[in-house]
Amino acid sequence: MNDKQLLMIPGPTPVPARVLQAMAKHPIGHRSGAYNKIQAEVTANLKWLHQTESDVLTLTVSGTGAMEAGIINFLSPGDRVLTGCNGKFGDRWAEICTAYGLQVEKITAEWGQPLDPEAFRQRLQADTAKEIKAVILTHSETSTGVLNDLAGINAAVKEHGQALIMVDAVTSLGAISLPIDDWGLDVVASGSQKGYMIPPGLGFVAVSAKAWVAYETAKLPRYYLDLGKYRKATAKDTTPFTPPVNLVFALQAALQMMREEGLEAIFARHNRLQRGTRAAIHALGLATLGPDDCASPAVTAVMPSQVDAEAVRKMMNQRYDIALAGGQDHLKGKIFRIGHLGFVCDRDMLTAIACLEATLKSLGCDVPMGAGISAAAAVFNEA
Prior knowledge:
Blueprint: E1 6-8, H1 17-23, H2 33-50, E2 55-59, H3 63-72, E3 80-85, H4 88-99, E4 103-108, H5 117-126, E5 132-138, E6 140-141, E7 146-147, H6 150-160, E8 164-168, H7 180-183, E9 187-191, E10 203-207, H8 209-215, H9 227-235, H10 245-261, H11 263-283, E11 287-288, E12 299-303, H12 309-320, E13 322-326, E14 336-339, H13 346-362, H14 371-380
Parallel strand pairs: 1-13, 3-4, 3-5, 5-8, 8-9
Antiparallel strand pairs: 2-10, 6-7, 9-10, 11-12, 12-14, 13-14
Helix pairs in contact: 1-10, 2-10, 5-6, 11-14, 12-13, 13-14
C-alpha cells in the first residue's frame, strides 16, 4: 500500500497533518507585515520551548549548520576547545572545530557509553590560565541512543568560569527538559526535523548574553551564518535572508500544537516512549547499546545477536513499511535504531514493536512472541 510508511527513525520524524496543511498554503512575501506577525509569534514560542528569555535565532540550515554557526560566531582561530566525543555527532563537532583552525582537545568515551563529567572537571580545573574558550558536546547522541549528563558537565564548566558551553540539542530539544536559562547554557543548537515535528530545513540557535560578549571579539570567518545579522533581524520580526516561508508556516503550526500539549506533557510522553521501547526490547531478549540509566528520550539503539541488523531493517521496511535507522561507521550492520521522537505516540510504538516481533520471527530468531508488546503496554498503562 502506497503512502503508508511509518517513520520510526530519529529524523526526519513524522509530521502531523495540521503541520502539512500549514505548509500547503500559498507563500507570502517575507518582507510583508503578515510575515512579521508570524515571525513574532514563532520567536515567542521558540523562547518558550527553549525555556529562555535570551535570543533564539532561526536559520535555513540543518542541525549541523546550526552547530557550525554556534561554533564559528563565538571563537577565534587557535582557540582551545574541549569536545565530548562518544558517537558520530560528537566526533563531527571536533571535525568542524579542526576545519576552522581551533585547538581541539577531545574527551572521549566508548560509543554506547556516556561522557564522564569528572573528566571535564579535571581538564577544566587544570586550565589555571583560563585558555579553554569553549566546551562543545552532544546532549542526546543520536548515533548510539545515549543521553550525556549535560547538567554535570555544565556544572564543571561553570566552575571554570570563563569557557562557554555549546550544546548539540538536536535530538533532545523538545524531548527532555532543557532549562537553558536556569542552567546558564550559552549556545544551544537544534534542527526542525526532530522534536519540532516539521520537515528538514530549519536550524535554531539559542544564544546567551555571555556568548554575545564573546561574539564581539570572535574572529572566525562568517557571513551567511553571522548570528549578529539574525539577532538584529529577529528583533524586528524579520529575517536577514530569504527564509523557507512554508517551513515557517509549518513551524508556527507545530509550536502551537506543542504549546497546547504543554512542556511537561511533552517530556512525560517521550520518557514513557523511551521506557516502553526499552522494556519491549529487553523482554524480547535483545540488548540495547547503552545502559538504561543514560538512555536518550529520542532513540533506542538495539543490538540483535541472532541476525544482521540490516536484515531487520530491510524486512521491516519491505514487509511492514516501517523505517528504522541503521548503525553508523563501525556499528553498521550491528545495530538498528528505533526513533521515538516528535509526533510519536504509544500506538505508533506498539505497532512498531508488534512488527519487529514478527520480523525477528520470520528471520529465524528465537523470540518470545508477544513479550515485547506486553512489556511496552505495561509501561504505557502505568498512568
